Structures are given as C-alpha cells and as structure tokens.
Amino acid sequence: MSLSPVAINFAYIVSAILFVFGLKMLGSPATARRGNMLSSLGMLIAIVVTLFSQQILSFEYIIIFAVIGAVIGALAARLVAMTAMPEMVALFNGSGGAASLLVGWAALYDQFLPGGLGEPSAFVMVTIALSVLIGGVTASGSIIAYGKLAEVMTSRAIVFSGQRIVNSLILLGILISAVMLVADPQIGSVWFWTLLGLALLLGVMAVIPIGGADMPVVISLLNSYSGLAACAAGFAIGNNILIVAGSLVGAAGLILTNIMCKAMNRSLANVLFSGFGAVKTASAVEGEVKPIVVDDAYLILESASSVVFVPGYGMAVAQAQHVVRELGELLEKNGAEVSYAIHPVAGRMPGHMNVLLAEANVPYDQLVEMDDINPRLPMTDVAIVIGANDVVNPAAREDENSPIYGMPIINVDQARTVFVLKRSMASGFSGVDNPLFFGENTRMLFGDAKQSIAGLVSEFKG
Amino acid sequence: MEAVFLSFILVLSIFLGFELISKVPATLHTPLMSGANAISGITIVGALLSAGAQHDTMATWLGAAAVMFATINVVGGYLVTDRMLAMFRKKDSGGAA
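Predict the joint structure of the above. Result:
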C-alpha cells in the first residue's frame, strides 16, 4: 500500500503545525515537556507517512540503519551525565548536519537516473552544493566543538599566523568548486570532492579559534546551521517539510546565538574571527587577597538573611550542584532568602547552569536572570561565587582597557560580602585578571568547590 | 516556478521561527536548543526516500548512512530534551525530594 504525494504533503502540514506548537510551548516551563512531545509526534507522523511513499521500494536498509541509529541515540540520551550535556548537544547537531550532507549528496545521484529528466537545473545543483557545504561545516564543526567541550583536545583558542589567509583561500576554493559543479554537473566530479573536502575543513577551521568561554555562541550557531542544512537538503529534493522545519530551527538557533553575543557585548563576527585573549593590556590588578576558612565562612552565612549563589563553569567541573542545593536548603531553613543568579553565558552552552541546578532539584523559580538580580545585590548579605570568573568581573564595568570591558556582568562586588570559591589564584578562562578577588568585601575560599560547600553543609548540620 | 514556491515557504518559515522563539526564558535555553536540534533531524524524511528508492547503489548507501545519522539526531534529541525537562520543577510542586 502506498499514499499519494498529495496525501503525504497534507500529512506534512500536520507535522509542521505540531512543530510550530511544540516550539511555542517550549517557551514556557509549564508547557515545555508537552511541547517537546507534540513536536516528536509531528516527527513521527512525518516519518510514518514518508514510509508509505511510492518512491520507497525497499525497506531492508532503512530498517537496519534506523534501528542502529535509534539504539545509539537512545543510549546516548539515557546515559549522558547532565554535566556532559554541552558535548552531547554538539554531537547531535553534528549527526543532523552529516545526515543533511548525505541527503544532498544522494540527491546528486538522483539527477542522473536512466530515463531521467536530463541535465539537472542550476537551481537544484546550487541547493545540492549548499546542503553539502552547510551540512559538512555543521558535521566537522560539531566534532571539533565536541572535542573542545569533552576536553579530548585543548579547549583554548587555537590561532596561528596566516589563519585569515588560509580561511579566505578555503572560502575561495569552496566558491570556485561550487560554481564549477553547478556549471558542469557530474557524478563523482573532482569539483564535488573538492567541495566536500573544503566544507569539512572549513568546519574545523571555523571552530578551532574559539575559546571555551565562547562555546555557548558556537553551540547555538551550529544548532542554527543544522537547521539550515536540513533546509538546503529540502530544496535539493524539493520537499516542503524539510524546508519548514529546517528554517524554524535555523531561526531558533540564530536567536539564541544573538542572545549569547549580547550577553558578552560582542558581535558575532568578533566571536568567530578573533581568538579571544589574543592581545590584551588590561590595567594590572594590585591588592591583597583575603582568604577565609570554612569555619569563618559558616559564621557569616549563619547570620545572613539573604544569600545569592552565582554558579559558573567551575561548578559543573567540580560537580558541585547537588551540595550547592543542599547548602541552599539549609540556609533557607536557617531563615535566609536564597536565590541563584544565572548569567546568560555562564557555562559552556546556553542555559547550562539552569540544567545542572534543575538536575540537583533546585526549583526553577529560584533561578534569577542577570537583569533581575543586579538591583537586588546591594541589599544582599552574601554572594557566593562558585567557579564563575569573567561573568562577575567588575573590570567589565570599570576598566576600559579590559578585553571584556562592556560585557554585562552580575555585580556581586556590590553585595555586602562576597565569597569566591576557587581552586587557586590562576586567572579565568579568558586570562583576564579579576579585581573582584582583591575587593574590600571579598573573601576567597580556596580549594575544591564541592569540598568547600560540603564543609559548610556539615557545619550547618553539626 | 518550483524554486519561487519553495523560497516563499523558506522566507515565511524563517519569520515564523523568529516570532516563535523570541521570548524564551533563559531557564529553557538548553531544552529549546536540543528540542530544536531534534526537529532538524527532519532531514530523515529525505534520507528515507534516498535509502528506499533503489535508484542507484551509491545513492542507497548514502541514504542508508543518512538514515542512521538522522535517527541518532531525532531519537537522541527528543529523549534527551524530555529527560532534561522532566527535571525542571517549580518550588513546592512535587518532584523527587
């Protein structure tokens, strides 16, 4: 049995509607889970009706490879630790990009069927080239992003002299090979292989110069690309649902990218093309750090009536989210008002801290966004900075020479007392000195964040 | 004409996407991203058509590989998003204590 193309396309409209409602509902915590289910129902409908297409004659490969993919995907989704979520998302982005690349590639063969339509149109060839290009960049870029996030490779920005020239040459090569492929479409043409190779190389070159602290931008940008790649593949095979769903994702990714850039007060071009921390002459910070031990920190917290936690990537590294929640609950029992201040780019992907704290069972209404917490900080007794650095660096506000000058920050230095949990006195990811550490009201609690917090917890219990 | 028609769809969908997502609270940025990512696995539709068409051996293999990658993206993306969203809870509204 098979369905007519018209029936299939009507079913695709239903899928598209479910995707739209699903995305809409993902915008509010109360409806998000149902939204995700609606969107997966849309996907299921699209897949099932496609299987009834007259074009599909053999199911062997489909079944085998779909089962392999489903098992890998399900295991990865179930087993991944919440702290490893950024690299997981990067890999899923990459597999989406790879799939679109392959669909575009396979579409090239469909253009040369015996008894086919003859010479493929330039429009189709352009879209095939685009799906190979965007899909390839997404796939290899995501693998590099994975490597950086999982620390399989260095998470620092990799820059070398002549990088821009190399990148310009790659772009030029891509343009030439795409034009040649469109002008003279052939299966297995050398121009196709050049295009494929250069697209993969471009993905690598685009992500290596980006430092760990800028990862939220890259992840959301790759997310956008994975949608655009699906969109290009949709053009290549003339399929509406790919175009609709792909462009929805493309737009979503671009919005997130824009939010991340604004949170760092940088343009997208600046993030992508300048290795952060390359040249800087920030005013040297001088002063004395005032260390504090757990016992004394406990005494201050014990008498505090408002406490704000400011988590950063260091909390993820130390896996400290569970003890942080425990301390938060003890402080609340002690009569303090507890909230968590989340900077939009804290961590390695958009919303990273929110996910970790949700995992630790912190209610999301206790999480406060930067613009809402800042007016409250001058009235706050204690701000506890856990593994965050640049996002609380007052140099962003005060020192015009600082490389992060102008970036909106959480003004913890305005709280009555600031505890900074830090392993040692090394400077933050961007290599910028942080005057916060030398502040009059700052106390440094050195050591592993998880152990320090656990120490405070046992003081409260004891 | 087909090109014009498809481009129309593209432009309207992009505008729709911008309208839909512009006001998502920061708390949901990660689930939104991974949920959107799962939707980008829609390319599985194209993959199924290539893998099942029996046009050309090479195209079938490319399609089959695409089916695998797209399924990883779809299944993994939706499940991981659901797993994350299941953890989000409001104060005093149940959840594992």
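Chain B has a mean pLDDT of 88.
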